[in-house]
Design brief:
The protein has 93 residues and is mainly alpha-helical. The protein has one domain. 53% of the residues lie in helices and 6% in strands. The chain contains 5 helices and 2 strands. The chain has a two-stranded parallel ribbon with strand order 1-2. Strand 1, helix 4 and strand 2 form a beta-alpha-beta unit. It is globular and about 35 Å long.
Length: 93
Amino acid sequence: MREILDIAHDTRPEELEAAGTRDVESAIDLARRCLDAGAYLIMMESEGITEEVATWRTDVVTAIVRELGLEQVMFEAADPESSRGTCRTTAPR
């Protein structure tokens, strides 16, 4: 886990790409374990999802919301554009 946090902190897109992509299920499983242990809210870092990436990973946002719901997850909005994008991705249709 520490390794993931170290990679995600202030990282350029090229560095994130070199570190590789993990299946979103590993993040969901970790979030579930935290919730089961008593956490009431999961804060998702935007780096690697909508920040410092060539293409936004809206598939990741969608999968996390689908599995965990909006009530227990908060997504970082690093700038107005990513904030609007996350809202569009998670808004009820």
